[in-house]
Amino acid sequence: MAVNALDQLRDLHAHFSLLRGADSALLKANNFDTKLNHLGHLLDELEQLRETYFHLTSIDGALEMLLQLLRAAHAERLYGDHLHCLMEPLRGKLYRALNEMEGII
């Protein structure tokens, strides 16, 4: 049983695929096979969102750890360049993930 919307959409595509090439005037007149192919390509693009989601969860975990470090070091002097070294890779990963999502949605 499909749990999320993407899996449900993939299941619907699989069920509709059973009608591919059917000898039906209605399906042929509406270019069913072409539209089914297009739906398959869209699903493949949406699948990329899973990978983007995992990138974002790793960034979230890294930011949470950074906040814990900052809380633990509240009495310590912080140097901007050190904080920059921690934040810049996270910003880069976040930027790439957002660009991936923008390309899909």
* Gap from first CA to last CA: 26 Å
What percent strand? under 5%
Number of domains: 1
- Radius of gyration based on Cα positions: 23 Å
- State the shape: rod-shaped
The strand count comes to 0
Taking the sheet with the most strands, its summary is: none
Number of distinct helices: 4
- Computed structural class: mainly alpha
Average pLDDT, rounded to a whole number, is 88
- Could you list the spans in which at least 5 consecutive residues all have pLDDT below 50? none
Portion of residues within helices: over 70%
Give the topology.
Layout: H1 5-17, H2 25-29, H3 32-72, H4 80-104
Organism: Metapseudomonas lalkuanensis
Protein name: DUF1484 family protein
Account of the 3D structure:
This is DUF1484 family protein. It comes from Metapseudomonas lalkuanensis. It is rod-shaped and about 75 Å long. By secondary structure, it is mostly helical. The two termini are 26 Å apart. 80% of the residues lie in helices and 0% in strands. It has one domain.
Give a quick summary of the entry.
With 105 residues, the chain is mainly α.
Structural features:
mainly alpha; 4 helices; rod-shaped; DUF1484 family protein; 105 residues
